[in-house]
């Protein structure tokens, strides 16, 4: 099967390992290409080394870099050709064998295997390919542990959930033939869902979960949310819904897709409106996320593009707000859910305030009501 072949290739990229970690350059280049395919910027199997590609590469690189890694997108653009599925098209009159590194005067563009390019048109396949790429940088269990800690949970919670998924829950899935191996070795959100959804119906699972005060169901859900987050599943599904809509014009689709992935006019409007993080005032654009107050899944198309339904937040605040672990009172005072363990690890503390504006209030009301069970209203 072509997909399995490319998933294997993506998991086993020849990444240089220095200073105790694998270099993220090839991973970031492929992630950038998939982002641009998703946005429709790359619509043909022709990948040009231009400013748009370099900017997309840099956004991923800033997230995945470690140590003294250098932001050099030209290196993976050339060196990915050693993987067998990435090809360089030389400029006219240039012999491919004479190209020893990236040079605009020698390389016209890159292109993928036709099969791979076709697979990348699917949002579901892209999410699996993204997960496969991430495994080049660290194993999924370690990445999950970091993900749990980033949400302010304790090390003991991370280890407890991970132990449950790798142990009792994997054993149950294998015993009932829902999975052929350990659940943490599944590199696809969709495969994980197929393997774990039937567990909830087993009496054996229900008994264990009851004795464990719902710990096993929380662990299953947590690891699934991690895979979805890592593969950007929610985003890709929403983009698919937009592109398949018969009610939107091509221009409306383009604007909505740009807003969904945090680019375009929606983000620009928030940058102009807030001039920095709406809570901390931090002003470096690369570190800020255009966040919807009334969630995308619940909003109308008009509300999705309304700057008054947006906050510009640092990534840690955005994640906590998006998941309903924090909200804001009409006065702007932060509200922190008890379910958010160790918020100080995320840089979140009581006394923080949002510079709230009257036009934000109706959307903040919706957000608080959506997560009202977590807050005292």
How would you explain this protein's 3D organization?
- This protein is mainly alpha-helical and 377 residues long.
- The chain has three domains: 133 residues, no CATH class; 91 residues, no CATH class; 127 residues, no CATH class.
- Helices cover 49% and strands 8% of the residues.
- The protein contains 17 helices and eight strands.
- The strands form four sheets. Strands 1-2 form a two-stranded antiparallel sheet. A two-stranded antiparallel sheet has the order 3-4.
- A hairpin with a 5-residue loop joins strand 7 and strand 8.
- The chain is globular and about 70 Å long.
- The chain starts with a helix and ends in a 7-residue tail after the last helix.
- The model has no long low-confidence stretch (mean pLDDT 87).
Number of domains: 3
Rg from C-alpha positions? 22 Å
Helix content: 40-55%
Class by SSE composition: mainly alpha
Tell me the β content: 5-15%
What order do the helices and strands follow?
A: HEEHHHEEHHHHHHHHHHEHEHEEH
* Strand segment tally: 8
Unreliable stretches: none
Overall mean confidence score, pLDDT: 87
Shape: globular
Report, as a whole number of angstroms, the end-to-end distance.
53 Å
User: How is the biggest beta sheet arranged?
Assistant: 2 strands, antiparallel
Give the spatial strand order of the biggest sheet: 1-2
Counting DSSP H or I runs of 4 or more residues, the number of helices is 17
GO molecular function, one term: endonuclease activity
Keywords: Endonuclease, Hydrolase, Nuclease
Domain HNH nuclease: 277-328
Pfam family, one: HNH_2
């Amino acid at each position: 099967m072509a997909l399995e072949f490319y998933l294997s290739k993506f998991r086993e990229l020849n990444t240089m390992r220095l200073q105790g970690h694998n270099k993220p350059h090839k991973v970031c280049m492929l992630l950038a290409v998939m982002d641009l395919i998703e946005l429709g910027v790359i619509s043909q199997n022709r990948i040009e080394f231009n400013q748009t590609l370099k900017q997309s590469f840099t956004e991923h690189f800033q997230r995945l870099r470690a140590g003294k890694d250098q932001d050099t997108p030209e290196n993976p653009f050339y060196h990915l050709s050693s993987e067998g599925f990435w090809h360089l098209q030389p400029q006219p009159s240039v012999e491919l064998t004479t190209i020893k590194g990236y040079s605009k005067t020698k390389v016209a563009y890159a292109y993928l295997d036709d099969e791979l390019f076709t697979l990348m048109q699917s949002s579901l396949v892209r999410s699996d390919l993204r997960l496969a790429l991430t495994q080049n940088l660290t194993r999924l269990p370690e990445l999950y542990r970091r993900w749990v800690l980033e949400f302010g949970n304790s090390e003991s919670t991370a280890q407890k959930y991970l132990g449950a998924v790798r142990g009792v829950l994997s054993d149950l899935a294998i015993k009932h033939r829902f999975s052929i191996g350990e659940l943490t070795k599944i590199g696809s959100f969709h495969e994980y869902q197929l393997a774990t959804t039937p567990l909830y119906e087993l009496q054996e699972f229900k008994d264990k979960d009851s004795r464990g005060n719902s710990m096993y169901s929380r662990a299953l859900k947590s690891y699934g949310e991690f895979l979805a987050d890592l593969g950007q599943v929610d985003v890709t599904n929403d983009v698919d819904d937009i592109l398949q809509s018969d009610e939107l014009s091509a221009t409306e689709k383009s604007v909505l897709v740009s807003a969904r992935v945090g680019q375009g006019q929606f983000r620009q409007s928030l940058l102009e409106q807030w001039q920095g993080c709406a809570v901390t005032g931090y002003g470096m654009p690369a570190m800020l996320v255009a966040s919807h107050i009334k969630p995308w899944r619940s909003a109308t198309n008009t509300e999705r593009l309304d700057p008054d339904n947006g906050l510009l937040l640092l990534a840690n605040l955005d994640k906590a707000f998006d998941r309903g672990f924090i909200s804001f009172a009409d006065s702007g005072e932060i509200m922190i859910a008890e379910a958010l363990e160790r918020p100080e690890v995320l840089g979140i503390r009581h006394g923080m305030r949002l510079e709230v504006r009257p036009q934000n209030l109706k959307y903040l009301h919706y957000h608080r009501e959506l997560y009202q069970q977590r807050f005292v209203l």
